[in-house]
Amino acid sequence: MEIMDRLAGRPGPVADQIVAALVAEIPAYSTMDARVLGAVREIAALYVAEAATLIRERRDPTDAEMAGFAASARARARDGVSLEDVLHALRLGFVVLWRVVGERLADGGRDFDAAMEVGTRFMRYFDLAAGVVSRHYLDERERLADSDDRRQGELIAALLADQEVRQAPRYWALVLSPGSAALVRTLRRLPLGSPVLAVPEGDTVLALWPALPGDSRAALERAHHALGPVLITIAGPSASGLDALAAEARALHRVAAGRQGLFCLEDLLLDALVHQAGGRTGDAVRALADPLTGELRATLAAYIASGLSVRETAGALNVHRNTVLYRLGQIHRLTGRDPRAVTDLFLLHAALGLTATGGGRESPGRPGGTS
Predict the structure, then answer these.
(1) Is pLDDT at 363 greater than 80 in this prediction?
(2) Which backbone phi and psi does 104 adopt, to 5 degrees?
(3) Phi-psi region of 279 (alpha: psi -120 to 50; beta: other; left: phi over 0)
(4) What are 64-96's pLDDT values in tens digits?
(5) Which among 325, 63, 331 has a CA at the least distance from the CA of 339?
């Protein structure tokens, strides 16, 4: 087919049109430097020449002929271009190429069936190329993430060992949950003067946050609101002893399990004290909650959270105040401890805390509670 022969032999002009369209329509491409755009033009020219050759020869591309797309997809992943933009660029290249081919087919008087055959083969080539681009882009992003995880893990380990690799004068230690790869990426992208170091730890994330002069806690509060419904426990900030800070943040996270918000030791003093109770003492305190139903535990928790206000407890639970009084009486009867007496209320609060976090139970090689 003469049209395809000309395109295969001289793809440059169409490649230039493709690059111009990418720069005009896709912001990520409009900000690329000349070197990167030159590489994009090369893959566009390859796209044009290979498409023309494959349509002329009526066959699918080989793996070797798809290698250019694979390499380009990996390069754009390293450049930080989104997969959506990369696939948009591929589609836009197809549109430009098809417009050129369509015009030449019309000028040459080709019949409808011939045009449909060319269009069908173009679509086939695009689908195969899109599959290759998506697969290699995602493979490269995964490789980069694994590499970043290893690098940040090594840097955090060095900082926890007090080695001289710090990038900020002081750090907060944070533990966040629920942990996810998305949460790790979000933390690493936070716009601070020094990078936040973050690595997954089981179902949590450990982060070292550079302590900025002035309002570091306020910055943490803003970050918590931006991150959404997560639990963050913090310790610090400090210029040394980061391993101890991380251990404190982990221990506080166990104490605050089941909550959402931003907490330091001062926010959780009573809970931390309760959680320290181990052995027979912890078991005895925890056992106070055993006879309480979920409804009674929720009432007790709401009563404590309300500042011991029966009216506010009733509002929080959407029940009558007499129902709250009845349930408080039930708690007294079942436990032998009166939730309206200060000493008894402290023990009942401790029992709720130990039950919620699993504290007070001895486990092999580690007494109940945390250090």
Answers:
(1) no
(2) -75, -35
(3) left
(4) 889 989 999 999 988 889 999 999 999 999 888
(5) 331
- pLDDT band at residue 366 under the 50/70/90 scheme: very low
Three-state DSSP state, 110: coil
Torsion angle of the four alpha carbons 41, 42, 45, 46, in this order, in degrees rounded to the nearest 10: -140
Integer Rg of the chain from CA: 32
Q: Which of 25-34, 41-50, 268-277, 310-319 has the lowest mean pLDDT?
A: 268-277
Strand duo 231-238 + 261-263: pairing: parallel
Tens digit of each residue's pLDDT (9 = 90 or more) over 257-303? 878 899 998 888 877 777 776 667 778 888 888 999 999 999 999 99
User: How many residues belong to the chain?
Assistant: 371
Report the alpha-carbon angle 39-40-41, nearest 5.
90
Q: Give the β-pairing of 231-238 and 171-177.
A: antiparallel
Cβ pair 23, 88 in contact under 8 A: no
Alpha-carbon distance 130 to 214, whole Å? 49
The neighbouring-strand residues paired with 262 are 232
Beta carbons within 10 angstroms of residue 256's beta carbon: 25
What's the one-letter identity of residue 270?
L
Q: DSSP H helical segments within the chain, as ranges? A: 2-9, 12-25, 27-30, 34-57, 63-79, 83-107, 112-160, 181-188, 216-227, 242-255, 269-275, 279-286, 294-305, 310-317, 321-335, 342-357
Mean pLDDT throughout 183-205? 82
pLDDT for res 107: 64
Q: Is 117 exposed, middle or buried (0-12, 13-18, 19+ CB in 10 A)?
A: middle
Q: Phi then psi for 57, rounded to 5 degrees?
A: -90, 0
Q: Tokens for 16?
A: 């230039």
